[in-house]
Amino acid sequence: MARKPDKRPPQLKIAAELRAKIMSGELEPGAKLPSTAELAETYAAAPATAHNATKLLQAEGFVYGQAGRGVFVRDRRPFVVRTAAYFDPSERGVTYKLLNVAEVQAPLDVATELGEDHAILRHRLMLRDEEPVEVSWSYYPLSLVGGSTLARRGRVPGGAPAVLTELGYPELEFADRLSVRPPTVEEAEILELPEGIPVFRQFRVVYSEDARPVEVSILIKGGHLYELMYRQLIPGPESK
Predict the structure, then answer these.
(1) Within a domain: residue 164?
(2) Is the pLDDT of residue 53 over 90?
């Protein structure tokens, strides 16, 4: 079957090719990009188009320019976000900023998973080196956590898992649905996203015993500079 031609503007195509090489490691941190003239020749484009492509990558943080020397690949690898249900931020150089805690009418998809309409929302921004990484909305069943420390503003020692365990509902399993889409205005502003950057959307349901849903979180991350890591044991032949 014939492929449909890529109708994106030429600068986006060039930026996409270079971005893929950077993320794969083919262009290593510190490597100098080809000159504007070389890029223009390689991709059969006008010099201005090649220049615009590198400007896009600079805005995204993939490369940086040095006057009189050229454009170089950033000197850091993509930040790998491990997809554990919970981690202690202090162990990873990551901090959280609590944006809001409130009793809310849960969004339809959240209410469907929780099995009830009202929830306690904890809205947070995750930062790394003071740069925004992820904005999240975590919902907990009001019938379960109403009156607990999860329903109050402020830091929760041990996080939600500690509170839920005390309530008799330890977090045992989670399931993610992952999608990619353009950001909303709020997401683009709070994550300080360059123009044109999509976001990862993780819709996570955390379960306790008897498959009881105890948390639903919507996690939004910029689709540049970050990677998600999933790890799962594969059962051996004897367990199949």
Answers:
(1) yes
(2) yes
